[in-house]
Amino acid sequence: MIRSAKALFLVVLMGSLCFAQAPPETTNTPDNSKAGAYYNFAMGRLYSELAGAYGNRNDYVSKAIQHYQDALKLDPSAGIIFEELTDLYIQTNRLRDAVTQAEDLLKQNPTTWMRAACWGAFTRAWPATARRARSTRTT
């Protein structure tokens, strides 16, 4: 009886050693950064929609901006993140922040499509600025 208990204990011990696994290393591989960027982009989009639904509440806007910026840090080559962040800045009348963000991004990644995206952001911001300037002149 004792001999079979010892044998069973030995089998269980050996089995647990064979199937024991070391925890995986959490390095910042491209897959992890893309997943993190996607998560932050989705959360930024959610808070951006909530901000639009509730009249641009500052807490939702600031959370959306933070998530978009985190997504840009993880994947600076994703142009859609930049476009969404720029649109959020424009919708909340933070044009100076949009320009600063575009300049910083161009310094990091001066590719052709990035210049086009920044130019698109500036042209989207320009009509809003012109309308505000005209409305302040007429009053």
Fold and architecture overview:
Helix content is 81%, strand content 0%. It has one domain (30-132): Serine Threonine Protein Phosphatase 5, Tetratricopeptide repeat, CATH 1.25.40. Helix 2 packs antiparallel against helix 3. The radius of gyration is 26 Å and the shape is elongated. It has helices at 2-19, 30-53, 58-74, 79-91, 95-108, 112-138. The protein has 139 residues and is mostly helical. It is built from 6 helices and no strands.
The radius of gyration over CA amounts to 26 Å
Broad shape? elongated
Query: Which class of secondary structure composition applies to the elements?
Result: mainly alpha
Major sheet size, sense and barrel closure: none
The CATH superfamily bears the name Tetratricopeptide repeat domain
Distance between the termini: 99 Å
Q: Low-confidence spans: pLDDT under 50, at least 5 residues?
A: none
- The H/E string reads HHHHHH
The tally of structural domains comes to 1
CATH architecture: Alpha Horseshoe
CATH topology: Serine Threonine Protein Phosphatase 5, Tetratricopeptide repeat
**Total E-strand runs:** 0
Name the beta content range. Answer: under 5%
Fraction of residues in H or I helices? over 70%
Total helices: the number is: 6
What's the overall average pLDDT, rounded? 75
CATH first level: which class? Mainly Alpha
Outline of the structure:
By secondary structure, the chain is an all-alpha fold. Helices cover 81% and strands 0% of the residues. It contains 6 helices and no strands.
